[in-house]
Specification:
This protein has 80 residues and is of the alpha+beta class. It is built from 1 helix and 5 strands. It is 19% helix and 49% strand. A 5-stranded antiparallel sheet has the order 1-2-3-4-5, with helices on one face. The protein is globular and about 40 Å long.
Length: 80
């Protein structure tokens, strides 16, 4: 994983016309952001949890950070 200022540890996976940004928020708790572009329109989709997109009650304290990070990612990646 890379360190990104303001986001923490992240990695980017590319799959043709879309990319997945994986941000580690807490131990074994990630924000997954799918970013795709079609005809100049960007689509963002989000998932939270471990590698299976699930999390338990012990990770609830990470949710505020997940929302804040999602807002940063969308503001950071939208072309101006």
């Amino acid at each position: 994983m890379l360190e990104s200022e303001g986001l923490g540890k992240l990695r980017v996976e590319s799959y043709g016309s879309y990319h997945i940004v994986v941000v580690e928020l807490c131990e074994d708790f990630y924000l997954f952001v799918s970013i795709s572009c079609s005809n100049g329109n960007y689509l963002y989709e989000f998932a939270l949890g471990d590698e299976n997109f699930v999390f338990g009650l012990d990770k609830v304290e990470c949710l505020d950070r997940a929302v804040a990070t999602a807002k940063k990612v969308t503001a950071w990646t939208v072309p101006r």
